Amino acid sequence: MDKFIIFGGERLTGEVQVSGAKNAVLPLMAACLLARGQSIIHHVPALRDVRTMVRLLEDMGTKASLEDHTVSLDTSMLEKQEAAYDLVRTMRASVLVLGPLLARYGRARVSLPGGCAIGARPINLHLMGLERLGAKIELTGGYIHATCDRLVGNNIRLDMPTVGGTENLMMAAALAKGRTIIENAAREPEIVDLANFINQMGGVISGAGTDLIVIDGVEELQPIEYTVMSDRIEAGTLLAAGVITQGDILVKNCPVEGMHVVLDKLRATGADITVNGKDVRVQMSGPIQAIDIRTQPHPGFPTDMQAQVMALMTIANGRSTISETIFENRFMHVSELRRMGADIICEGSMAVIRGCDFLQSAPVMATDLRASACLVLAGLVAQGATEIRRIYHLDRGYEKIENKLEELGAKIKRVHS
Ligand code: EPU
Predict the structure, then answer these.
(1) Which of 19, 210, 391, 416 is the Cys-Cys partner for 45 at CB 3.0 to 4.6 Å?
(2) pLDDT per residue over 162-172, tens digit each?
């Protein structure tokens, strides 16, 4: 298992490019199942989750190639409509194939994703919505067995604005007969990217980005060529690296529209943030100011940036609070940060952080993707050499983060072991 060694204390400066968005490209790849033929997606990040999705689609009979940030997926010869446990257990987003398989083939057999480190993460709303469209769903042997004749549009109200649920239902409804209305839909920018993708395929979706999405089903969709949006969470993480190291970084190609709340919170830490088109410059000098955050569905503060902000708060001036409202167990980084000298008290979904003068290096362990990013940020300022183990989590969602940080001046190396 690879690990990172980070020698803290370097001020980061220079320019860095944001890669394509993991949480946008995975649904787009699943959506390729909606059309017969070869679709091509550009700006694809080189990530383990993307390779897992390629394997999953190949396993069904898709002809795939992934080269130089472009994936091509030809679904003409699909042999089976199945997502097996071995792949689904390594990546929960595999469940996104359920909606498109059902809509195009009238059947799907998809392993039920289990819980994961950050929470139980049920998919009851995905299944409820598909049933509202006319699917018959049985859960046996750890699998979802879903069948239907042609799906029929309906009104679906989600109890909570689930991102994956909204995506699965949008894909299913795109080929359903008639109109589907999703109420209390998730509003994340990745939902908008998926709607744009499906519309370019010939779909008729409006309202994506609001809480009411209207989908008029069509008979058939066409394969297309598309460029996926950039990753707002990677962009936010790189900006946070600028803040924590008192740096001056130009983060290029940010999806700025979906980042306002994160940029505002980083400004509140004392950072000077300037936006020029898709480029965001962060300049930090002076103490980091304590801020309070509460994670919420978009357009609120994203849970996927919570851990990174906590790293900043460990050395901030004063007391900050972080309230995590999306996942029930997303404070796994707290105990690792404490090992580096952070003063954090957790009670339920609330963490209280008292900023300390400095962090000390320690061997720490990554537990999930964003917790790992938090530890990298902490390592960038800790005194001494921080060893971060289990960085395979980072490889799921950050493309070559060590190279990007190194080019900005960080002393970070990957050790293969
Ligand atoms: N939920 C239910 N029932 C459902 C679906 C969701 O109770 O049927 C609950 C979940 O348990 C959770 C909340 O609703 O407490 C939100 O879950 P959501 O479905 O919105 O999350 P997701 O689709 O599973 C995506 C991202 C996550 C990101 C969340 C929230 C992808 C592939 N994953 O997950 O990304 O944290 O939305 O924004 O898009 C990450 O990148 O590190 C990551 C975990």
Answers:
(1) 19
(2) 999 999 999 99
